Amino acid sequence: MANPKDAAAKVESLAADAQKAATDQFEKISKSFEDAAAFSQDNMDAFMKSSNIATKAAEELNAAFMTFSKRAVDESVAATKDLSSVKTVPEFVEKQAAFAKSTLDTYMKQAAKFNEMFMAAAKDVAEPINARAAAAADLVKSYRV
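RE: above sequence
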């Protein structure tokens, strides 16, 4: 038969072990919640940074577009004035062809510039999000057994 003192000591030992295991698990869970909250805050910061970059890029693109549009209108007005002063049909055709070529060249250069601006903006906007995706991947890797 077991000694009551030994049985009480075993129960006390089991209770202490259970209490320690519960405390350890609670600390791990609390740390996980803290990590999740910090991770979520970092995600929000990245989204805000990305949003700010996108806003600035949109403003820059809009300014460039407005400048290009104003210049195009000014050039069209000047070309119209020039075309209205011609005396012969061949002169009109020559000036119209030169204007069309100049306009197309300008448009193509500006389209390339807009494309470069857009691609740079897209890269800059995606950078904070990509960093968070990499952090998420690292976090998932850290939980592997």
